Fold this sequence. Notes:
Blueprint: E1 3-10, H1 12-42, H2 49-90, E2 94-98, E3 101-104, H3 107-151, H4 157-201, E4 207-212, E5 215-220, H5 223-251, H6 255-291, E6 294-298
Antiparallel strand pairs: 1-2, 1-6, 2-3, 4-5, 5-6
Amino acid sequence: MANVVEIKSAKIVPFTLMSSSISAILAFIGGILFAIIAGIAVALLPAPWGGLLAGLGVAAIIAYPILTFLVGLSTVFLSVLLYNLLVPRVGGVKLAMEENRVVSIPIVPFALILSIIGAIWAFIIGLVLSTGIAPLAGLIGTALPLIGNATNTTITGSMFGAGTTFLYVFLIIGLPILAFIFGFIYNALFAIFYNFIAARAAKIQLNFTAVTGAWNDLTSIPIVPAALALAVVSAVFGILSGLGNLATLAGQGQASAGFVSLLTSIIGNFIQTFIVVAIGAWLYNFLAPRIGAVKLELE
């Protein structure tokens, strides 16, 4: 019989440090792969493009992991903080567990809180973009009469002002609404695909150790079940995107290319997700005893 547990909150610092560290290491691996590809391309490209690409490869190994770590610190910190603040108001993520196996994910709680966090991030991004656009928009609005006289156009300051006002409204209001809607759909589909498809192939396993009260350390994540389950979910999303490409190409009389695109999307999504999740789970298990496991309050 499955026992439904709710993640009421997470300790911010351990979660942020673990997530940022794993992201930085994955970025370092990606930088090495990019540097290898760049090194191969250097031999094939004439100067100065070869040297430029080689420089980018070296920069990817050094700068990309550092930037990923720093960005992760801020974004994950705020995301976990938002989660902890929102749970008492909208409820947290719930997991139906049998021992250490996640047999299903209740759809609405999972999709609701994650889509709200996504909408808040969209609001922040829209606010930052609006703030950055405002000085440029003011400069253009001031220059419009001169541009109109010089080019004999009918664009007026009021027309431009209406356009920028619409842009501000979209960035601050419309973008968060769209982020919530599409985020809810995506997260709901993720839970549905896991519950009815992926869980039949493999169930994610989470090994917890009780610490004090309702607090638990996530001591380890078995690698293969997590990688296989999430790869299956990713492959199903690959089917959806591949079917879209298939319909488009078939409408253009290129049905064979559409089927190739469909197969590539499914297999590519599966393999890529399996590798990334497997490495991520292995890194978590390696880092947990060294920098501290993620701490979750379960109820």
